[in-house]
Design brief:
The chain is an alpha/beta fold. It has 11 helices and 12 strands. Strand 9, helix 9 and strand 10 form a beta-alpha-beta unit. Helix 2 (78-93) packs parallel to helix 10.
Length: 364
């Protein structure tokens, strides 16, 4: 039996080019309705405890087992690559074979890969859906095999978090996570202030969660006026244009919230181009917890970045799957990565600031 700690498995991907962290297919409908009923995800502390305890006790020897890693992305960017590393590290520790399927953000491709995986036969499935709707259909197909299915990254089947029938769900980017991120930024306003929001791709589940979070945060903080709320396509060049236009039309903006660190590079450039000082005249709050993002926060250029943990996301998902294969026991509930030891024993919260940046080691 082999076992390794998560801390020993940090992969050297920080130098890789960063694009979208969890982007939809480029074919996402730009005219799609981004409004949806708000959904509140509820973290299950027992699920996190059970997962960490099982890992620390030592993974089972699954020699001969074949696991299908069915993911919306594998090689597209550093986030996806780091997440694959987490699953592979755990598979190696359990003596299992990990067979990788990369849907490249395409629901049709993922369906074909799910069908292929079912035909080939696996002992379990680690599944990260491209979309909630297509993922639900794919999940139902996988369930018909009678083999355990652990899900990661994105809720599906219209659920805010865990889906009944899966052996576990590990994620960070729920609607509730984005709401915490935006409300943390809005809470920095002592009086009336104006804010700009920059998100991902219109038509994606991720953008819908982001938009719902902004609406909820704006209601909770009526002193904050969101004067511009636009997609940035996870692209720093697009974000640069969007924020430049917003600052030209609204020169009193104090806050910019962004949903991805790499895109936030464009936000920073726009603030500088407007003759303002990032971190002083305009506070920037990002999502990612990347090496670059944490460095910007430590320097005081950005006011914060909310962490994402791609390594733990897949690693813990594999642990839950291994538990189900070895013991028949599931890990029901939402294993929220904000409760992971790397956060709890590090910065103590998902919000990285200049004060706690030294307590967090970026994974990518």
């Amino acid at each position: 039996m082999k076992s390794r700690t998560l801390a020993a498995a940090m992969v050297a991907t920080a130098a890789l080019a960063l694009t979208a962290c969890t982007a939809p297919s480029p074919a996402a409908d730009p005219s799609a309705d981004t409004t949806a009923p708000p959904m509140t995800a509820t973290a299950d502390a027992d699920a996190m405890t059970a997962t960490v305890d099982y890992l620390e006790a030592g993974l089972p020897d699954l020699e001969g087992a074949r696991i299908a890693y069915l993911s919306e992305c594998v090689a597209a960017n550093a986030y996806c690559q780091t997440r694959l590393a987490g699953a592979q590290e755990m598979a190696d520790a359990a003596n299992a074979e990990l067979v990788v399927f990369d849907a490249a953000f395409d629901p049709a491709t993922q369906l074909s890969q799910v069908q292929d995986a079912i035909q080939r036969g696996f002992d379990g499935y680690l599944f990260s859906p491209v979309t909630s709707t297509s993922g639900c259909s794919d999940f139902e197909l996988l369930q018909q095999t009678g083999k355990p299915v652990a899900t990661i990254n994105s809720p599906m089947c219209g659920n805010p978090d865990y889906t009944e029938g899966s052996v576990g769900f590990v994620a960070m980017q729920s609607e509730s996570f984005f709401r915490q991120h935006v409300e943390n930024a809005f809470a920095s306003c002592e009086g009336e202030c104006e804010a700009v929001a920059v998100g991902g791709f219109v038509g994606s589940d991720l953008f819908t969660r982001w938009e719902n979070a902004i609406a909820a945060a704006a209601e909770a903080y009526p002193n904050v006026s969101v004067v511009s709320d636009q997609p940035g396509n996870f692209d720093p060049a697009v974000a640069l244009t969007v924020v430049q236009d917003a600052l030209a039309a609204n020169p009193d903006v104090e806050i910019v919230v962004s949903s991805w660190d790499d895109m936030t590079r464009g936000v920073e450039q726009a603030v500088v181009a407007a003759g303002k000082t990032p971190g002083v005249d305009v506070r920037i709050y990002s999502v990612g917890g990347t090496a670059d993002g944490v460095a910007k926060v430590a320097e005081g250029v950005w006011s914060g970045t909310s962490v994402l943990l791609p390594y733990e996301e897949s690693a813990y998902g594999f642990v839950q799957l291994a538990r189900a294969i070895a013991t028949g026991e599931s890990t029901p509930g939402f294993t929220f990565l904000g409760d992971a030891p790397v956060v709890v024993d590090g910065p103590g919260e998902i919000f990285i600031t200049a004060e706690n940046a030294a307590d967090f080691t970026p994974e990518y």
